Every structure is written in C-alpha cells, then in structure tokens.
Amino acid sequence: MSIPMRHFMLPACMLWACFSLSAQSSLEPKYSNSNIYAGIEVGSKGVKMSVIEIGKNAKRNGAFNIVKDTSVNTDFISFTDLNFEATLKGFLGMYEKAAKEYKIPPKRIFTVISSGVKMQSEKDGKTEWVTRLVDQFRQATAEPNRQVEVVDVTKEARLSHLGIVPDSRRYNTFLIDIGSGNTKGGFFPFGNTEDFKLFQLNWGTKSTANATEKRLDGDASLINYYKNLQRVLSGAENSEIVYAVNSSGAYPLSDNIAVSGGIAWAVATLTHPELVDNPIVSVSFNEIKKFCEKIYNNPDAYSAAFLSNNVNRAEDKKAIREEAGRVHKVFDQRSLMAGAGLILKIMRQFESAFDTKHFYLVKNGQVGWVSAYVDSEVD
Known about the structure:
The chain is an alpha/beta fold. It folds into 2 domains: 34-150, 2-Layer Sandwich (Nucleotidyltransferase, domain 5); 166-366, Exopolyphosphatase. Domain 2 (Nucleotidyltransferase, domain 5). It is 44% helix and 18% strand. It has helices at 58-61, 81-101, 115-124, 127-141, 153-164, 205-213, 222-248, 262-271, 285-297, 304-308, 314-330, 333-348, 368-373, and strands at residues 34-42, 46-55, 64-73, 109-113, 148-150, 173-178, 183-187, 197-201, 256-260, 280-283, 358-362. The chain has a 6-stranded mixed sheet, with helices on both faces. The protein has a 5-stranded mixed sheet with strand order 3-2-1-4-5. Helix 2 runs parallel beside helix 4 (127-141), helix 8 (262-271) crosses helix 12 (333-348) and helix 9 (285-297) runs antiparallel to helix 12. The chain is globular. The two termini are 29 Å apart.
C-alpha cells in the first residue's frame, strides 16, 4: 500500500533516520550533496514507486528526502490476462517516468517483485506469469540484463530493517511490518547484518478483519463484530503470536520494537495528530490499548474534524485534517479495530513491568527497501 505523506522535519536527537517528503512536482534536490533514486516494486495488488533523495551522509545523519510516492492498483496475483497487461503497463509507465521525466539514470532505478507475489505465484503454480512479466519488461525497456529481483520474504524483511532502522539501533531493534494479509519482520541476533532472524505471522490487517467477518453469522452489528474480533485476536495470539515471538528470541536482545505498515501509519496519525510531521512516533502499550477501546466506543474522537479542532494554528489544522482524512479513506472503523488490535496483541508479548521496551510506529516504511539497495553508494 502506498501511503501519502507530507514534508516533515525531526529534531536532531531523534533516534531514527530522518526522512522527509516534498510535494513538489520537479525533482529539485534538497541536499547539496545527494543523488536521486527510484524503487519500483510489483506487489500483490499493484505497482508502486518511491523516488527518494539520499544525501552523502545518509547512514550517519539520516539525510533522506522522499520526493515522490505513487502506486497503481492492478491485482497482479489474480493471474488474469487483463491484470497482467495492466501490471506490465503500470510497471513500464513508472519506469519511463523515472527515467525520462525525472531523468534518473537506469543504474539508480531499482526494480523488484515482492515476496507476496513470489509466495502466491508458487502457491498457485503460476511462477511462469512472473517470469513472463520480467521478460516482457526487459524487452520493452531494451535492457535485457536489467536486474528484476524476485525477493523472498526473508530478504524483503531484512531489506526493510536495513532501510528503516539506523545503524545506531541496528542490533537492538526488532522490526515488525504489518501488511494486509500477513506480518513479517525480524532482527539481527549476532551483531552482523548477514545473519537475520525472520519473524512471520499469517495475520495482517485485512486477514484479521476477514476472519472476523466470517464469524458474524448474519449479525453485522458493531457489537457483534467487536465480540468476534476479540475471539479472532485471542485465537491468533494463542495459536501463533506467542509462539512466533518466543521462538524468535527477540525479547532479551531487542530494546526497541518498531512497527511499520499501513496500520502503523494510521494509528500513529490518529493517536498523535500533533506529530503529523514526524515519520516515527513513540507510543506505549497503554496508548495503543486506549486507542483500541476508543476507536470502538467513540470513533468520532478520531475524526479529521475533531482532531484538527484541537490545535490553534491554521497551518496545523489543515495538515492534521488532510492527513487524518487520508487515514479514514484507507481504513474504516472496523479495519482500524482489526489492525490496531493486532498491534496490541504483538506488543503485549514485549510488555513487562521488569524490562522496559521502547515502542515506535513507523509511518514511511514503504521506502525502506530502496534505501537498503543503495547502501553501498551512500557509505
């Protein structure tokens, strides 16, 4: 999912790498010594492109600038001719825009097929569709040797960690990326970036909501949805989440728990609207617990109008109203309940009166893999 974001700045003391987004149409560099890169990913539901500026000292001081972030929905994993053509058209269109309109050299345009596509194509016996897409893309761009990597889930999670988490927190941060259909992430347990411990759940925001809907038995009322959501989340916790966290070995090694994905952006935006310009928001277990309760009992408290009315400056009101409005266009009340409930169940495994963990919600995790790909060029 592509998440719209605004321009933001963070204090220099921020623990995490500092990203910013420019709404400008041209690609005027923000930093005096930087390069522009593009990352184009064919995912399960479509094609997305992130254009980012990376400063020379990005790994040390977080000199990143998200210039463009766009996507087109094509539902590639339905594996129909119509959606194949739409995906190829979107893939080529984004590449042409990056190369011709934005004047980004081909060596700075990275192209990948997501782990979700890889997993679904293997499950359905449709791997030849992926091969054909890559072959036709190379032929159309006249780049027969272009690398279009079909990444597996471990590499995708590893790249996200390398791209999202700064070096200073590399070995004590457990990254959890909550997607629509599943959750993946992990950490580096041995003090090097080669050995990565994968964390994976078969639960995501949409799959949790879908499992709840299937239990409603004709009663679509909110109270019945809430009751069955608690049953689904408890079942997921008891059958999978507890085991996955315990078997990962992350608890004693990770001081920081970072959650990324669309639901992380949504919850961060609604719980801390005053931090609309911050890409990383620190939260507590109790804050997420209260959000889960309030989004069910009093959802109007998180409406764009209500949140924006709590600030005085007209500029802040506009920013909060727009960003909260974007959240509610992507997530309705029930999907917010499902996604936030999943976050809470995962966080619960790290909550302890005897060991302080720091929880963070990452708003811009979708560009992580791009910056990881260019690591060698910004050292």
